[in-house]
Specification:
The complex is a heterodimer of chains A (about 800) and B (about 260). Chain A is an alpha+beta fold and about 800 residues long. Chain A contains 20 helices and 28 strands. Chain A has a 7-stranded mixed sheet with strand order 3-5-1-12-9-10-11. A 5-stranded mixed sheet of chain A has the order 7-15-14-13-8. In chain A, strands 18-26-27-28 form a 4-stranded mixed sheet, with helices on both faces. In chain A, strand 20, helix 15 and strand 21 form a beta-alpha-beta unit. In chain A, helix 15 packs parallel to helix 16. The longest helix of chain A is centred in the C-terminal third of the chain and has 27 residues. The model of chain A has no long low-confidence stretch (mean pLDDT about 95). With about 260 residues, chain B is of the alpha+beta class. Helices cover about 35% and strands about 25% of the residues of chain B. In chain B, strands 4-5-10-6-7 form a 5-stranded antiparallel sheet. Chain B has a 4-stranded antiparallel sheet with strand order 11-12-13-14, with helices on both faces. In chain B, strands 1-3-2 form a 3-stranded parallel sheet, covered by helices on one side. Classes of the chains: A alpha+beta (about 800), B alpha+beta (about 260). The interface between A and B is medium-sized, with 22 and 16 residues.
Amino acid sequence: MSQDGIGAAVKRKEDRRFLTGAGHYTDDLSRPGQAFLHVVRSPFAHARVKAIRADAARRAPGVLAVLTGADLAREKIGNIPTGWLIHSKDGTPMVEPPHPALVTDRVRHVGDQVAVVVAATRDQAREAAVLVEVDYEELPAVASVAQAVAPGAPLVWGQAPGNTCYDWTLGDEAATDAAFAKAKTVVSLDVVNNRLIPNAIEPRAALGEYDRATGDYTLHTTSQNPHLTRLLLAAFSFGVPEHKLRVVAPDVGGGFGSKIFHYAEELLVLWAARTVGRPVRWTAQRSESFMSDAHGRDHVSHGELALDADGRFLGLRVRTVANLGAYLSTFAPAVPTYLYGTLFAGCYRTPAIHVSVRTVFTNTVPVDAYRGAGRPEAVFLLERLVDTAARATGIDRVELRRRNFVQPDQFPYQTPVALQYDSGDYGATLAAALDKAGWAGFEARRAEARTRGKLRGIGLSTYVEACGLAPSALAGALGARAGLYESAGVRVDPTGSVTVFTGTHSHGQGHETTFAQIVAEKLGLPLDRVEVVHGDTARTSFGMGTYGSRSLAVGGSALVTALQKVIDKGKKIAAHLLEAGEGDVVFEGGRYVVAGTDRAKTFAEVAFAAYVPHKYPAGLEPGLEETAFYDPKNFTYPAGCHVCEVEIDPETGTTRVVALTAVDDVGVVINPMIVEGQVHGGLAQGVGQALLEGALYDDAGQLLSGSFLGYTMPRASDLPAWQVATRITPCTHNPLGSKGVGEVGAIGSPPAVINAVVDALAHLGVRHVDMPATPERVWRAIRGAAAKG
Amino acid sequence: MQDFAFLRPESVAAAVAALKARPDAKYLGGGQSLIPVMKLGLSMPSDLVALAGLTELRGIRRDGKTLVVGAGTTHAEVAASPEVRAAVPALAELAGHIGDPQVRNRGTLGGSLAHADPSADYPAAVLALGASVVTDRRTVPADAFFTGMFQTALTADELVVAVRFPEPEKAAYAKFPHPASRFALVGVMVAKGPAGVRVAVTGAGPCVFRAAPLEAALSGRFAPEALDGLAVPEAGLVGDPFGSAEYRAHLVVVLARRAVAACA
């Protein structure tokens, strides 16, 4: 045990370097002889590339090379693969079009990569790029779900009729139809889940190096999972063994999903470095980030909920069309299916659920996982439907939820959409949130606001999400092309200090602190005796990276497993040193003690003996270093209740979030300060989605929100002082009992915000407002209701 | 960004001479509008003639019933100025909500007016207060200064030196910020002064303009209720995904009413 162990709100070890400007981000790196790469990107959403003339650019000052898709093909550099294979309901595999790092004959979205210029300086590369002449023949484009599914729509890919990638279903359709047939009440709702642009504060960057003496490649990149990037680059792009390729993700300034994926520029800097014989760097300009980082969400859905006379949910039907963009990004096929359809049971005992998802290609930036990834889309539709049902039946919205909750004694609970929840207490998080939010006293606040001419509303959401990705066998059965376990290495030095090697990656989550706290707890060491290494394929044996709130639940569990191996081996050494039977020695408080005696050896003494094995058990290897791989038995199921209060200015339609309360069950908490920070960030992104953010394309596929002048990121002044708390039911199937916290804020909050907006306007007859609920949209909802009323 | 020469003239006369001699040169005030468009390659001046060191462009003073603000005065200086707060408090308020602290510490009054962004705040104040724009060679009344989207009466090498604001009896500015950029989606400045009631609208149209029907109504009775039932025609207003012309027209009246209320 340690005062810095599990449950302690210790300050983050990594913050000293970040706050003093001593972090090492990819763009901070500098190499002798380095060159700079600039990507020539398509200005058109859809066009045939008739010719690329680069002679003028090649002659420009400082230019080392201009490379195109034809060069890439000639050198047989492979395409960028996708990590999931989804099958349509008729059993056919999804349409999987090629995704080259540079196009050859056609561009398919604004920002698509056409050529690269490599030059001695950044400015030379950029200036020469202007001289690359591309003959485009513009083609008709589709930029939205509505355009993509329209009869006779232009095709993004000839091999994808109707622009359909796959048409997938989950659940028992016949049982669901039967449930609807006997329903007393059926409510339905059409919702749009708005397309988001991630905007991590650090733009993507990459540095490629090639050693022609050894044939070794080294890539530094802004990645959430360097091992996966190495796997894909080695196996699919370059066709080299993985040991010839090292991928390092050093300090990374936020990802939110957008840096999970393998991007073309990672391949291009390595290829360019090999071609020109110099290290090659690339850093995205912010405007490039808008048009080349994978976007998130972008669903159009119709949902229906069937209830009996007592308000019990009988059945749920969901029809969604999801926009995948122009190419399949790394995780894209999984997001609107297994991370979405499986979530529709929510906290409720709905016995029959049928989900149907058609995904479409469009001439837009690829869409992939973004904080929450599928789960915010599902929770938004479900929780809007539940509020709609409450209004239709006259049953109080809190009572309606309570009446349908999975009860604490019903776990493990098998849902009709594949998942089996292990633990939870939805009534408890709901009660705690309502209490903290002052739900009972709300009507007085509404009345007071009315005296100031403001419309005040309150809304809630109760959600479950599935994270801790993922049991490998299950993921494989669902179409994953990789395992989703995690690894951890624990190296004990001769003096008893510890280095942890994790395959997860920290880019804001604070793993260097929380993982050290786990070591402190288990080995009884102070935090400054523990170092956590991550983000380097040369140092960590393997790993699947950080996304899907998996690092602690999966990577932390691997660490606990490795630590137990260390403790067990130490026990053999200690027993020998103490001349006791191994079964008589216990490890507690950082010491091996002969039970019932005062004879003991410290962990450091045992570590020293392992490396200076003068008195040592026969047959035992010297040294103290262990590795563990942990494959989770199930997903984890964080759950909670978010309550939002808004005030709307009816004259302008402006919505202000005046309070947002989140009570989340994230399982066992390692560091409450970090957990609170994770929830804060997620809530900010949730409010951003609900009220502010939205990628806008015009019908020709031009990105209208391509800068911060046109894309509204949440600012501090847009956000209230959060009220957050946790209420714990431990995960039953992993050794930490932790469930995950990275995404809950972004999953639970958008429906709470919109439910509050609709509550504020309900007396006018407003029944739904799409996200983002911008001032004009709210003003139009008010005016539209007035015109009808 | 394209390479450019950077010139630091020591007087207004030298600055104007430098620009006259270089057809592709531009004046550089605080650089809050010019530098971003240069970074995007949308403007590629051969030379930048820096105005930051020119003392002739500095200073805030009261000249009888007129407030005179040097063109090189930053938004932050205007916001914090006791002279401005005493003479035209609404102008200090307006300046204090332009952009963000970085913009306010670098951006200048003259730069904003010469740039004439259709969503900028200052043009509304200059027009509503009936100010005069003093250049190196003449004085241009506000009503003649703003001629279109990013268009002014300034000739290519003409330099704004100062702005003379007649002190109003009452004035207030109400702004509905663009949610992303924080420029004015619509901003309305209302002033009652020596030249009567003037209502200037920025953000809503391609160029700052006076709202004649609102001025007429408020000339009869300077009270928020005087605007009840009035509408501004949406024809000619700007519409984009953040605000249709119809919505902007609606906001003009809402904000005018709020500005009048704030005058009380």
